[in-house]
Design goal:
single chain; mainly beta; Metal Binding Protein, Guanine Nucleotide Exchange Factor, Chain A; eight-stranded mixed beta sheet; 1 helix; 11 strands; 5% helix; 36% strand
Length: 135
């Protein structure tokens, strides 16, 4: 299989991976706020298959007590999401060079889905499993 490739808006952060991603829409509040959109489209691959090939590496920040997100520090493009203790990383599908080749197969975080977000209505759906407490 040909590796997937992608990168940020300015081209400084580039990646490749020899894995076919598992893609889904995520409607959870964290993804909505981190992307500034109605939902995120995430392309999950094995974390050990991801290779950074551009001139820069994304900056990573802890976005919650259970997850980290990365972005390009030059143009601000969100690049990835990683949950603690998991061996997968999610790439934002909009950063894939051939995003049209990997259609989402399900919805996640549907308890936070906006009523007007009309996409993939016939796809399987499940609520968010990840939780943490601020207490």
């Amino acid at each position: 299989m040909e590796p997937i490739t992608g990168g940020c808006l300015c081209g400084r952060v580039r990646y490749e991976a020899p894995a076919r991603p598992r893609v889904h829409y995520c409607h959870c509040t964290m993804c909505r706020r981190s992307t500034g959109s109605a939902f995120a489209v995430l392309a999950w691959i094995p974390a050990d298959s991801l290779r950074w090939v551009g001139e820069g590496r994304p900056l990573e920040r802890r976005s919650s007590p259970i997850a980290r997100r990365s972005f390009c520090d030059r143009c601000g493009t969100p690049i990835s999401l990683s949950y603690d203790g998991r061996d997968e990383v999610a790439l934002h599908a909009g950063t894939l060079d051939r995003a049209d080749a990997f259609a989402p197969g399900s919805h996640y975080g549907v308890e936070s889905r906006l009523a007007w977000a009309d996409c993939g209505a016939a796809l399987p759906a499940q609520p968010t499993k990840e939780r943490w407490s601020d207490a």
